């Protein structure tokens, strides 16, 4: 069996292949962008859920200790521990650290 292809047929075939590749790449870029957007919103929802769960756990423990008085040391620890954790997180978040050192070419780490 012999196939007779003219230069026009070859150009049309190459053009169709090129169009398919372009459409495929555009689709994959859109899919990647949609996945990144969904992932970012899922991260925010997940973080909010963890924050609410932790806050509810701390509140529950504090409520149990306050509702059943008797041990002043335990009361102070239960009320002060969340403050210490919050202070640590805020200090760590708001502390600016930078490496303002200049490196020369022959310096090694």
Secondary structure layout:
Layout: H1 7-67, H2 72-94
Helix pairs in contact: 1-2
What does this protein look like?
The protein has 109 residues and is an all-alpha fold. It has one domain (7-94). The chain contains 2 helices and no strands. It has helices at residues 7-67, 72-94. Helix 1 runs antiparallel to helix 2 (72-94). The longest helix has 61 residues, at 7-67. The protein is elongated. The N and C termini lie far apart (68 Å). The model has no long low-confidence stretch (mean pLDDT 81). Keywords: Membrane, Transmembrane, Transmembrane helix.
Figure out the total of helices: 2
* Global morphology: elongated
Domains (count): 1
Question: Helices and strands, in N-to-C order?
Answer: HH
- Helix/strand/pairing category: mainly alpha
pLDDT averaged residue by residue: 81
- Helix fraction by DSSP (H/I, runs of at least 4): over 70%
Largest sheet: none
* End-to-end C-alpha gap: 68 Å
Low-confidence stretches: none
Oligomer: single chain
Radius of gyration: 31 Å
The beta-strand count equals 0
As a percent range, the share of strand residues is under 5%
Give a quick set of tags describing it.
77% helix; mainly alpha; 109 residues; elongated
Compact summary:
The chain contains 2 helices and no strands. By secondary structure, the protein is mostly helical. The mean pLDDT is 81.
